[in-house]
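User: What would this chain look like folded?
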Amino acid sequence: MNDLSKTNQEFNTQLNTNFVPNLTSTALNSNLLSTSHSSIVFIDSGVIDYQSLVERIYPETEVHILSPDQNATAQITEILMGREGISSLHIISHGDVGGLQLGKDWLNVSNLNNYANQIQAWKNALTNDADILLYGCNVGAGTTGQAFVNLMSQLTGADIAASDNLTGNTVLGGDWDLEVKTGTIESVIALTTEAIQTYSSTLNLSFAAPINLTAGTAPWALSIGDINGDGEQDLAVANYISNNVSVLLGNGDGTFANPINFTAGDGPSGVSIGDINGDRQQDLVVTNFNGNNVSVLLGNGNATFAPPTNFVVASGSMDTARVEIGDINGDGKQDLAIVNYISSKILVLLGNGDGTFATPTEFTAQDAPAAVSIGDINGDGKQDLAVANYGYYGDTSVPNSNNISVLLSNGNGTFAAPVNFTAGNGPEGISIGDINGDGKQDLAVANYKSNNISVLLGNGNGTFNTPINFITGNGPTGVQIGDINGDGKQDLVVTNYDSNTISVLLNNQPQAPKNITLSSTAILENQVGVIVGVIKVSDIDSRFTDITITVDNPNFEVVKGNSSFFLKVKDAKSFDFEDINGNSFNIQITAKDETNLEKVQNFSINILDVNEAPTNITLSANTVKEDIPGQIIGNLIVTDPDANNSFTFVVDDNRFEVIANQLQLKADASLDYETNSFVNIRITAIDQDNLKIQKTLKIKVLEINDQPIDIILSKNEVTENSPGEIIASVILEDVDSDIFTLNVDDKRFEVIQQSGTFVLKLKVGKTVDFKTEETIPIILTATDDRGGIFSKMFTLKVNDINDINKPPIQRRKHDFDGDGKADILWRDQITGENAIWRINDFQLRDAAFITPVPDPNWKIVTTGDFNGDGKADILWRNYLSGENAIWMMDGFEPLSAESRQFITRVEDINWKIITAADFNGDSKSDILWRNSNTGENAVWLMNGFQLDGQFLEYRIIDTNWVMVDAGDFDADGKADIVWRNSKTGENAIWLMNGSQLKDAKFLPKTDLNWKMEKVGDLNGDTKDDIVWRNYKTGEMAVWFVDVNQLDSFNNYSVRGEFIAIKNSNQVFLEDTNWKLEAITDYNGDAKYDLIWRNYINGKTAIWWMDSHQIVNFGYITQSQAILNIKTNWEITF
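Assistant: Here's the prediction, encoded as structure tokens.
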């Protein structure tokens, strides 16, 4: 349960856990008890709801309930007499620093020696290593508490444990831990978990231990008030035997000066303080029991009084018992309420305001009323009466009321019928006041016969909770509620007739904050981080520094200054009046003190509207047809932070006007498209407070559209094998001078704008071939921006060129069907099966097995276009026999029956085929060799299956130099060779011209963790680039080589870029099971992409590249399922 949902009763229970229930049972033994248990529990019957604890003690535990009418230490001693073998003794009672309240007495540091003999006798019942666990609030706190624990250990020889904080319910700030110990505590708490979790109170005291004072002899009653006008509460005590009234002037801290005695009547039995004559000085009214009259002592304001004036209230025998001063009928004058003990009457004497009173009015209570108190019990603003009915003294022949009566006031000096409540035995004193600080009036009753004080916490409606009893001195006859030490809490002062003392009980219960105020609850809109107001908290027992204030709304915060709290809007936050529903916020402010008691209060923060200038003007439509006067163009829409503003409009062009927020041409005005295709007008919107916005709006003038009338090409010739060639300028004729888009039906071509002119060109990576088509028909379509369309057919002549002297077409690496997109060639090294996949984006478009080669000595070395048909062929080498072969392919099938042939045999298996590439620019792949033993190198210039030439020059004997790959680095249409030294990390390029070395330079040297993976054109500039992978860090990089420029070391210039790896692709770098198989163009954009294969999970993936950027990524899938291929299948290129 949180503090916000506490009922009043629960809150009262928390504040009054010191009151000891007035139990009637004195039995010490019950069916809970045994004489053989090693664990024994004593529970003081003054503990709130002690029954719930008894019900939830672990079985096999002996339980005793201590009677409130006997000395509890003696009770414990008696029970332990003759016992032995007890290893765990638990005492549960109310506590305070250095002591326990047991039964009707305190056991503490001050009086422990008085009980030393009894407590030492406990040792006989205890084992040598016994534990005594003291469950009471704050018993072990501070040096006093530690001293008490140490003395108990010395007397009993046991290990002692006690608490240094609240014991009990956790919501109320308690726990069941015993923090202060002597020796080693082996025992655990005897209460079950359910008992700990469900107990609803704590074992602390709301009042400090009584402080006893003396006045006269047999003090019977008292009153609290400021007799000398110094702002401190004083006491007036009626002393029955010494036959006087004692005045004890208060010091403001709960202590008092020595009594000053005044004479009243015979046998003073009651006294009340109040200003009965309206002179602003406090007077005394005293009832004289023996004299059966009332004495009035008018005050001088300095703690002295005029001689008493006596008057008789009721004739007969000794009758006049107690008196109370208060404004009973609400006329601003002090009245008297007097109880007549013998006649069982309540007399009300309405005051005249001058110290005299009207004839008494009688009311009936119960038998033998002994005391009366005046206060607003039910919260209706009227003064009610509470009466203590003692019952007939010693006369058993008549009914004995022994209760208290509440008479609710009608506000005119009369009362409703009494409602009776039970307190203790022999109630003789009563007082009304707010003891627990909940704003509701409670009762304190002095019970003479039961020798205790009962507190009945009020519900605010004239009813009360069950009385809670506690002990003061002997024979309490009078009680008063008041703040005698000025701390804002209501204390108790009791007259103890038999012990001849006055007990002062100071209220030390923490109280929750009483009230929260906010100096302002309104702020202007759009103010950032503004302070709303000052928060003030009323708390009678907490300092400013001990208060914590929070607000539940996340838009606000509470700032603590040096002496004030401020509610403010959070920094960078503001509110717009128009955006706030209801133009206000409902917030809840919580003030919490150092004991976690809190006050919650709701506030409504109003957002005040401030007129703001409009911020924008828009037009619902912005076109007008030419040559038509008076047209409505559209609605003017004004954006304004303020709602419901009205606007006037001013237009700077006199051809236009605004009527009912509509912009329109005047009746005699029109626009001409040929003069101006658009008009700019400036409009000003002005709100009712003359705040304005000005905006220039563009009005488009419409004409009747004419479609284009002709398309003209500047020439109609295209050169074969020239990807990206600009063919001709495209000229459009149109009378409207519209904006056009141009499309061509042949997807090899495109129309682009270049320097403001349309040009027809071949797409990058697309070529035409004179051998297959000498002319090409195309259709150009022009579409203007208003939907006009014109199409025209052209015939392009294909110009034949000398293929030997012209750089080859875009190399079609691994493209078996000539569609411009690479395919995937597979080989199963175990079964000898072979297959080709054709890919569309990341989807497997189709696949087919090709002729198997079961002999595992045959390896697919690479692919290349050996016959220049634009389709990849397969190059084989047998590493056992030295045989070599080429399969000329057309998609999945051989080109013809003769398309599979052996080529020249090389028996020395130290000769390795490095790759196939076009070294002489004839658009046919050649074969690059290196002998790993001798360092010799060779290029076979191929023409289909025929070897046209080779060279064996430029031997590199150092076999640490490895040929990595071949690629065209100078864009001359001829392959060059890339080298890497596997020992030193050096790198180099040989620029080739067919079979001749044209130039050679080093590249930058690299860390050996970097591996040169593949070569290919990643940025589409027709020059190949180098892809690197660092097998230590997982980084990837690309070198863009410029062989036409040298660096400071006379090397070819290199621009290196790390590949921008996306998060989803990071796994390929971190997991070395992913192998980069090849780089080639998989999406037909003339930029090489990367294909990966994982030989653990069988997955295959492609990165689409644009320079060093990954533009797309995906696993190869079929029907949206990722394909997992057995790892004995290898991708071969």
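The domain at 515-608 is CATH 2.60.40.60 (Immunoglobulin-like). If you want, I can go into more detail on any region.
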